Amino acid sequence: MPERPRLPISTASDLAAPARVLAERVREASAARRPLRIVGGDTKAFFGRATDGERLEVAGHRGVTDYEPSELVITARAGTPILEIEALLAQNGQMLAFEPPVLGAASTLGGVVASGLAGPRRPFAGAVRDSVLGVTVLNGRGEALRLGGTVFKNVAGFDGFRLMAGALGCLGVLLEVSIRVAPTPAAERLLSFDLDWPRARRLIGDLMRRPTPLSGAAHDGGRLHLRLSGAVGAVATAAAEIGGEAGDGDFWFDLRHRRLSMLTEPRLWRLSVGRTASLPDLPGQWLRDWAGAEIWLTSEARPEQIRRLAADAGGHATLYRGARPGEAVFAPLSDGLMALHRRLKEAFDPAGVFNPGRMYEGL
Amino acid sequence: MLDQFDNRLDPIFPPIERARLISTLTPLLPADGLIVKAEGMRVYETDGLAAYRGMPAAVALPRDAAQVRAVLKACARLGVAVVARGAGTGLSGGALPSPGCVLLSLSRMNRILSIDPDARTARVQPGVRNLAISEAVAAHGLFYAPDPSSQLACSIGGNVAENAGGVHCLKYGLTVHNIQKLDIVTIDGEEMSLGDDSLDAPGFDLLALMTGSEGLLAVVTGVTVRLLPSPTHAQVLLAAFADVRHAGEAVAAIIAAGIIPAGLEMMDRLALGAAEEHTHAGYPTDAAAILLCELDGAEGDVGAELARVATVCEACGATRVRQARDENERKLFWAGRKGAFPAMGRLSPDYYCIDGTIPRRRLPDVLEAIQRLSREHGLAVANVFHAGDGNLHPLILYDANSDGGIERAETLGGAILELCVEMGGTITGEHGVGREKINQMCVQFTAAEIATFFAIKAAFDPAGLLNPGKAIPTLARCAEYGAMHVHAGKTAFANLDRF
Lengths: 363, 499
Description:
A: 11 helices, globular, B: Uridine Diphospho-n-acetylenolpyruvylglucosamine Reductase, domain 2, Alpha-Beta Plaits, 4 domains
């Protein structure tokens, strides 16, 4: 009757063989205070600060462990290729709502969750952490902790599982993740408009004040691209109301998977800002996604100037790619928040072995 | 009963001289902002779990974040526990005063600070009522989605502490999915903002960690909520079943068909009979169970999808399926559901509401198992719950004035929660652990996991002064509970000495 019997205490012995090896390696590393660099498919090694450490490969710990479409949840080992998961979901008319960018066929579920990166649907369907329902994670002592679960409504214990999304592996080694999935919308329409950003922003604002079935709104500097997804009638009605030209599927694919040429620039900023904020012009290429809340920017301006720009717009800037050795990637935290981060890191990883410095220096 | 704290099993702080506490707090608060007399503190003795009672040392009623900060700093210095309280509607004893604590009521911080209809956000103080937000933004065609059944009274700060859900969360998410920024004060009196105007924040996702932390990590002094455009059309369908199993199967079948209802609720015979007498909603009282399935969206889509829901229900053995005739009847169907809890008063002097979640596909088995447990314990159980989420609310009917009334109800409730864990679910879907489910945490989590929760708490609150004895059991409590609690042939925490 029980699907996943719990042992009184998590020990490595109840883990699948590759996970047992991982737990042993973590214990050894902690004992010797030897840093580990956790690797899934190694497709996002550029993201975050450079971190030294022995490679800890998770890709061997793979496979879907539980998937029943009527539960709207899939549980899989962290090393499972994300493409395998998406293919299985597609066969059952379902998808990952947060549309993770997939930067290579080797990309794993664990890497997707740890990076916390989400695609164009994010403002309309939620972030990675909104879809994560539970994880099994190795802490620095090599203990497998199961945080959260497989059900959507679950308020037992602190939501340590959501904390893992976007933590860049700094808190633990993900072994298994349960993710909420969504039905694939019945209808989808792509639209495109010749509009500058100020006018595009007004149109997006109008649409978002009403129940419009938007699932994407991006501006490439010259054109506004809209994507509508949902029930057949709602999509048809909205498309007829909004007008515009037929959109381009390649654009949305390349936007999501970071293949648009500007997204492959060697030094690339990502600004996460208030959707309705006005930003001053800065020379460089601008690409807006997330209805204006996510801005991709190539600019030679000083990092402090770009960070100030994002902060003034109610958000923060990330040097998504191309940080020089020792250069900060993420927006600096206040002293109070940084102290809290250090203590949380220590709660999970007392010896400080997991991806040290990948997010912030000294963390 | 669990409202009794135990020195050996719960973190209890040595009492300090009351006069000293009062003289320290008095200058920090407005003249009417500190209650110290027993009759004034009586209303704070209990929250929505009225069976549990405790008296605080004092009640502080700050009007702004600076006063919250001052009270917290003072309590930290004195080593006095602080229990934060919103509207006091919580059902798990989360706001139950612990011995010698200062009860920090946020109810006077009840202003809506700003509404930004373009950004679809509102900045509010923690004491603002849940429903007041939707009312204030309705003129803009917007609403705040999480709608716990106490939404008329419950406060947004309490909603954040509990990660509150409601009828509509299957489609629109829980509190954590609908907030953008939190202002908090730590026990040391440090003010911090978690999140900003954007859709994420640098660093670890502390906004998510804070949500649902039951007042153990910090005190919320400001919330920026996300708003959604109100749907243009909503319609509800009522399906009656002659067998509870069939109703449970229909729930999974509706979701499997790719339909995400705005609400999908179930009531069994006992519940719907009482609700019908109470509200006269037009429920078929001869049914073993009914489902209420609401869809919202564009009118044509809602009609088409409801037709599919009807087909699915019929295929699962529904004896009758009908849509509400008009908006009035739709509201009446929901009024019956919302009145189901108060309607229990017709069946029994007291009821005890349980809150577990299970995977949807287990619904038929779990509903049967609950009936079996009900017979074994000799107490009737009515079921009225968020079926679409697998979030059960068995209502155990008992008489507090009879021998061992509440204790028997608690024992049965504990057995039902353990069943939920066994079925791959959780001991609480939306009411929180609070004081009530502290022992069942030992069943759901291992010693290493519980130690992790304490380590997270210590990162925010090293001395453990915020809401002690709630939400996370000490390992000593688990050992004690485990000693009398043999589960599936194994004693939980038998290996405790390893930690």
